[in-house]
Here is the input.
Amino acid sequence: MALAVGVIAALVAGCSGGDDSTAGGSAGSMPTAGLSADRVPAPASAEGFSVSSRGEAADPVPASQLTSFDRQLARTASMTVRAEDAARAAAAARQIAADAGGYVGSERSDEESASLTLVVPSEEMDGVLADLAGLGKRIEQRVSVEDVTDQIVDVDSRVASQRESVERVRKLLARAESISDLVTIERELAWREAELESLLARQDALRGRVTMAPISLELVEKPGTNGDRDDGYSFLAGLAAGWGAFTTFLGATAEALGAALPFLVLAGVLAALALLARRRRRHARGGAPAGG
Here is the structure.
């Protein structure tokens, strides 16, 4: 029994060595469920063993040393187009993406503009951009490229090493001879499988960035190009402008009258007094001879 456990401990120690860099150093940040040698001291007897929590990832081979490895490029683009009709241009853009083997990632539109994110195969991006420029007048276009070769080589290497690590721990699990050994190895296996899943997700994400290219498209309408709608808008805009001018004139007139009203009242009173005095003088002149 002691000899069998000693063989298992040696196998675990051998499969766990030289693996601190697994998953970009994330092993140091994940909980090891009490599996590391410093947290689970080895028993004094020969019947106990401890399993290291370190993974198996070997140092990745630099991409510069892989002469036959194609460069892996992640491409993105953005474009602004002025079109006759934004809604019609958006429908055409969706069809262009579909014909190229892509899809619409997101879309937002209003009466005079539309914003779309088109995701198309990277090798089709140049042709798609040319077709989108034909929807109207191209105002702006930007294309960016990121070389992710080193990242993909690194993750591929870690995935291969982590798979070997998982297989070795599974073999140890099948050879466990006690409940304590079984529990310890199962914890180690669960942790390493979780690390492998994380690496596989990152691998898929990187390859997806290389395979598909997102294009941010902004569609804006030319002013005064949509006949019926623009004529209606022009009439309403003119009517609104005229009404605004009329109400402004009325407001200014009322304000002026309000300011001048006290002076007008005073002038009216003075005029009335002057007229009354004039009439009295005339009446006095007309009655003087008759009285003499």
About this structure: The first strand starts at residue 73 and ends at 83. Residues 1-8, 10-61, 63-68, 226-230 have pLDDT under 50 and may be disordered. The beta strands are 73-83, 103-109, 113-121, 137-147, 212-221.
